[in-house]
Amino acid sequence: MSEAWRLLLLPGDGIGPEVSEATEAVLEVAAAWLERRSGRGVAVRRGWIGGAAIDRWGVPLPEETLEAARASDAVLLAAVGGPRWEHLPGHLRPEAGLLALRRELGVYANLRPATVWPGLEGRSPLRPEVVAGTDCLVVRELTGGLYYGQPRGRGVGSGGEIRAVDTMEYSADEIRRVAHVAFRAARRRRRLVTSVDKANVLENSRLWREVVSNVARDYPDVRLEHQLVDSAAMLLVSQPARFDVLLTENLFGDILSDLAGGVVGSLGLLPSASLGDGGPGLYEPVHGSAPDIAGQDRANPLGMILSLAMLFESSFGAAWLAAELREAVAAVLAEGWRTADIAAPGARLAGTREMGRRVARELERRARAGEAGPDARAGRRSGAESEPVDSAARPHMAAGA
Ligand code: NAD
To answer: Is residue 92 located within the same domain as residue 45?
Structure first.
């Protein structure tokens, strides 16, 4: 039997531990299925980050967590931050732990899918007919550009007034490697890459456009179009369904990925993956620690559960399991179950835990039906409500720190 995949789970702060617990219910079922199918299970370790780490260790990213992250195949993080730690200096705040983890893992490509789930078109602030069918993936460069360029800081100008400087800098290599990520992703999707820049003004963008166009030659089966960031923003709200993969640099990606998220509805539904070369991937829901609803069993765990699906696909090579997991989520939504953030009046309300249990149960049912053969699979949806998930049995998940 192969050595188990190593997964580091970082629950963090606020609603983080709640959505983590709900996701673990799904992870148990998924890991068991993966082990039965591939002979390779999942060993889960838990660690501390953010405010929880500050309270325990005095720093937002303890060395122990960083070592565990480096030694893992994938890191699944819920959320960090909260008012309790806001008085601390910047480098000691919870968010600094997350930024340091991204940097230390060298995850330069941030992938954020934004999908309108059937039945949730009404959650979008846009008209349902505009948003219907939206299913795009923003690939954002995560470790370069304005957020990291030097020099940066404040100084005094010749007239004595205070001035601030940030530097936007990209090397061709930095652009090339993230472009390959986008083109590879497009091959698994609808084979369209929209590269977003500001090439009519910025020298960085002119290099971006040149390098992306060169990379495109390696992918003749993928269509490439270029779009200026201002018109891309306009098109994202007027015709969101026209996009497949949007490839862009750090600052534009920061803004456009939130815009795409806003277009499809609740923050609680959005997953993300951050990938580098060879090292562990970092998977997180897009939302923060939501202190306003923490501890109330009201948080939507689907963003983290869908991040787990991305993890199985990109870090554990199990695209089939990611697809099953997404279908399990779709089935639970199709049954009408909603957490409060996505509920219309009269919906079947589920708390965080129950939503996790329902997805886990649906996945378990799919596993049993799949293993029993196509006939059982066709009839798998009958008797759904009565099958329990055996949360006590975890032979496939090794206990961790
Ligand atoms: P937030 O994402 O935590 O919350 C914004 C709004 O969305 C709130 O009304 C919240 O209740 C709601 N919401 C968020 N996630 C939800 C979920 N899963 N289900 C239902 N509703 C959900 O953003 P914020 O309020 O700006 O920030 C709160 C804290 O989180 C801050 O300390 C911030 O720094 C931190 N933060 C962390 C991350 C991260 O860990 N990646 C990201 C963003 C913000």
So the answer is: yes
For the CA atoms of 260, 261, 266, 269, what is the dihedral angle to 10 degrees? 130
Q: For 20-47, how does the pLDDT look when each residue is reduced to its tens digit (9 = 90+)?
A: 999 999 999 999 999 999 999 999 999 9
Residue 50 lies in a domain: yes
Ligand 1 contact, 265 CB (< 6 A): no
Does 205 share its domain with 326?
no
* Among protein residues, the one whose CA lies closest to atom 1 of ligand 1: 288
- Give me the number of domains the chain comprises: 2
How many residues make up the chain in this entry? Answer: 401
Strand partners, 193: 224, 245
* Residue carrying structure tokens 């673990």: 24
Q: What is the CATH number of the domain that holds 159?
A: 3.40.718.10
pLDDT greater at residue 178 or residue 392 = 178
Q: If you measure from the C-alpha of residue 298 to the centroid of ligand 1, how many angstroms do you get, rounded to a whole number? A: 13
Q: Per the domain annotation, does 269 fall within a domain?
A: no
Q: At what angle do helices 352-372 and 319-334 cross, to 10 degrees?
A: 120
pTM for this prediction: 0.89
Q: What value does the mean pLDDT take over residues 129-155?
A: 93
User: Which of 289, 302, 329, 342 to mutate to test ligand 1, by most ligand atoms within 8 A of the CB atom?
Assistant: 289
Instruction: Give a yes or no: residue 103 inside a domain.
Output: yes
The residue segments making up the domain with residue 186 are 121-264
Ligand 1 site, residue 269, Cβ cutoff 6 A: no
Give 287 Cα–ligand 1 centroid separation in angstroms. Answer: 5
